[in-house]
Amino acid sequence: MQRQHSQGIPGTARTRDGRELFFMEHPGPADGGGRATVVFEGGLASPRSYWALVQRAVAGSARAVVYDRSGLGRSAPDPSGRRHLARLADDLGDLLDHLGPGPFVLVGHSWGGPVVRLAAAARPERIAGLVLVDPTDETCDLLFEPSIRRLERVRYRAALLLARLGVFGLLFRKVTAALPPDAAADMRAEAFTVAAVRTMGAEQARVEADLRALLGRPPGLGDLPVTVISATRPTPGMSAQARKAVNESHAYRARQSPRGRHVLARQADHMVPTSEPGVVVTETERLLGAPADRSPEH
């Protein structure tokens, strides 16, 4: 008998304009009725595989779902080319529609942080809480510096070249090495292609405009519990001063919720879901009201 994939059972959902989104889910324990469904949202160019360690651990307490945004992994590309934040959030909302009435705990890493905030604000009545994992936040002034846009353009061109040469994935060997073998194989096959890099570029091109839109009209989350996890260890390309500014924006974001919580990941760089998955599991479990497994299996 074929062994089940570490990320669970595959499925597809349709967006409102007919695009197909690929997802995988663990149904959770048989006695998990009444607990929220946990849905994970990745950062720029991050496919579902990136969440394998956290998803598998959380599935011990609740239904846990990972998916690929349009143009990533096994999801159909977006022919419109418009990968702005509101469209990403709408796609996530369409996935939630497919999964059922909720409630949902949304966990977003990096650029996934603004995505889940916007999706939650659209239908807050079905959201049980948010976990923002080292998120991009519009209150960090550093993100609007022209030097950041230049760095993004340089990195995009380099990533595209490396993807064409078939060696882009070598930069992420530490990430894939942390994953279960089947999820690692999926990520190596799907995450470092030219198509995936082009999708990243389409999303990245809108980042500054999307952040300014968030500044002008922050998503209203009411009294939803919001936990923000900050990395603390050095991340390549990020100075100590930049890390301080980013983490200050995280503390601010947590303070905006009457049930906000700011947590430091003491062992993690920006890649928290693979460098310190236990902290994400713990904080997700806290919102679920279940005991946390702090040591996900590799």
UniProtKB/TrEMBL annotation:
Residue ranges crossing the lipid bilayer per the database entry: none
PANTHER family (UniProt xref): AB HYDROLASE-1 DOMAIN-CONTAINING PROTEIN, HYDROLASE, ALPHA/BETA FOLD FAMILY PROTEIN
GO terms of molecular function: catalytic activity
Identification of the protein by name: AB hydrolase-1 domain-containing protein
Highest taxon listed in the record's lineage: Bacteria
Domain AB hydrolase-1: from-to ranges: 38-138
Pfam family, one: Abhydrolase_1
InterPro entries the record matches: AB_hydrolase, AB_hydrolase_1, AB_hydrolase_fold
Gene3D superfamilies linked to this entry: alpha/beta hydrolase
Upper lineage: Bacteria, Bacillati, Actinomycetota, Actinomycetes, Kitasatosporales
